[in-house]
Predict the 3D structure of the following.
Amino acid sequence: MAGCRSWVFFLTVCAVGLFGTNAEIKFTIPVGKLFTYELMRETFQNDFEPLSKLYAGRLYDDPMVFKCNLQNFPDLPEWLRFTQRHPYDNGFLYGTPTSPGKNIIEIYAINKRSYETARHILIIKVIPEKIMPYQAEFFIELREIEKVLPSSVQDEIKQDLQKLWNTEALEIINITNALDRGGRVPLPLAGHFEGVYVKVGSEQYFSDCLLKVLTPEYQKQCTVGAKIKPPGGCNFCSIPSNCITWCKTELFDLTKREPAPPAPTVGPGILEARDEFNPPESPPGRDYFPDYIMTVIVPLILAIILCLLLGYIMFGRREGVAKRNAKTNQIQLYHHHTIHGNTDELRSMAGSRSGSPPLSTLPMFNSRSEERALPQQSDSPSIPLIMAQHDPYSDTLPRK
């Protein structure tokens, strides 16, 4: 019994390795009809953990990121788009083919928990079919693209539009995200949606409700920006989130297409006989003096004027030393001259260090009379350097 189980396990793993990771899904769709394919996370989860539920009793719900591209190309075909809002959401491939052909799409699923990858092949065969002659495009404001692509939601929208068109023979041609049409990104708040455009087509002509959109007074109200209510008896919105915006409704009658312009007439390829072309010997002369004036002379004159103005401000507006001293307080001038004198004295000391010490550093030095008193005998270790320390009330500043 144990040997039988091991063989079953071995065969299952081999089958998954050979077929599961490169599964092929085939579709045949007509031109001009909406194609939608939902990438189910559960399907790829079985590829990542094929026997976890059977033997371990464990079922994972891993976040996944899908990457889709046309085989041997980096991107998808121009008619096919992909969307996935969150790694825990399913992905959608959707679009409307415009020409017949065969498209091989590679789908890679990346497990964000274990970083395993799985690969599926989607083969889309597009066959030619007659295009619907009457088409209409509606804008649904309270929807987002990934909420409209499931088949159940498409059926709800289709039922409302069938009542509006007054026919059962109605097909969804295309669904487009409003952001792909130049719409603004909504705020991340409740009640704000991106909006989607839904285009449908039918063999039957437009109903009276749809033709009211083409009336001049209705278009005038939309141009003014007034809030337009659905025409009387034309409100077939069963679900509020599926209600259309009437001012953004457009009708397309493909039976009234303008004829293509005629093809150009192909000539014999020989130019008509004309006179011989004589090229000019030299280009016409040109006067560069105005350009020289504007390029060199004018900037030079401006630079000279600015230099003169700056020189006048820097040198012509000075007050002078005498005027400055007359307005300065005598005490400030005395301190200023004292600092300059001490600076010069220190510089001269630095030049010849063998000279006598400056008078200002001698003890008992009187700055007014420039006399030095004899040091007094005292037992105190602190000896005053100037006479003002003996008499704190004596005035040592020069007076007139």
